[in-house]
Amino acid sequence: MWDKPSILNWFANFLFALAVVLMLYGLLFALVHLPICPIREVKVSGKLDHVNQEQVKLIVAKHLKGNFFTLNLIQTRDAFEKLPWARTVSVRRRWPDALSVEIEEHKALARWGDIALVNTRGELFHAASDADLPLFYGPGDGVELVTKNYADFSKILNRVDIKIARVTLSPRRAWEIKTDRNLMIALGRIDMGARLSKFSAAYESVLSHLNAEIKYADLRYPNGFAVRKPKRLSMQVSPLAPEKAFRQA
User: Is the full-model pTM beyond 0.85?
Assistant: First the structure.
């Protein structure tokens, strides 16, 4: 073999290439494992009303392991997403020594019973809030539907200055509303928006001018609705001519 120049040249080239590979590997190993290129700054952005600086510092101290090159972005994102008010999180490296964290917070719309909060997208999340929020009740798969119908019902009732305090969707998919005036409204399972619109029109023109507060309204009739006042007066109202349709019991 030693008297064959072609084999010797090939062997020399192989050794040279191996040395280059080992040198590059050594440099990469040192770059990755030695305490160089540390993350010196974590920039958190987004419209943040609940995520605070102390929470961010805790995550940085506990979960940010490694340097600019070795930091696991997926694990870092998951750590930030465990914050109660964080809905979505994106994490990016910013050369040479920064980490960019963008957080989208949940926007609380209501309470789902006493177990969770509901955001404006109809998603449940677990966080603490002392805000005065309406209550939602319903089957476990009904969160998004209740959120959507709450928005529709609110638009109708807001026209007559009535706010919703509670929305209930029964297992049979029947709807019931409780307002901030302790008025219970039974909507049934069909044509809820149309029924509520007729009631709203009658309320504005007639019912709001009565001396006693209405406590219950049953909107499940095909051609009208019934309302109940405390003790003294109960009546039925036709949506076609509400001002002439009272019938005292």
Answer: no
Overall domain count for the chain: 3
Residue 168, phi then psi, degrees to nearest 5: -125, 130
- Quick check: 232 and 219 in contact, CB under 8 A? no
Cα 227 to Cα 166, 179, 183, 247: the distances in Å are 19, 14, 10, 10
In a domain, 134, yes or no: yes
17 and 55 housed in the same domain: no
For residue 153, being part of any structural domain is answered with yes
Q: Is the separation of the CB atoms in 107 and 120 below 8 Å?
A: yes
CA distance 246 to 36: 83
Tell whether 209 and 222 lie within a shared domain: yes
Cis omega (within 30 of 0) for bond into 96: yes
Q: What is the pLDDT along the chain (249 residues), one digit of tens a residue?
A: 556 566 657 666 766 777 777 777 666 666 555 567 788 999 999 999 999 999 999 999 999 888 888 899 999 999 999 999 999 999 999 998 999 999 999 999 999 999 999 999 999 999 999 999 999 999 999 999 999 999 999 999 999 999 999 999 999 999 999 999 999 999 999 999 999 999 999 999 988 887 778 899 999 998 889 988 666 544 455 554 443 343 333
- Containing structural domain, residue 174: 108-244
Task: State both tokens at 203.
Answer: 């309320």
Say how far apart CA 249 and CA 245 lie, in whole Å. 13
Distance, in Å, from the CA atom of 197 to the CA atom of 134, rounded to the nearest integer, reads 21
Distance, CA of 192 to CA of 198 (rounded, Å): 10
Dig out the tokens for 220 from the structure.
């499940």
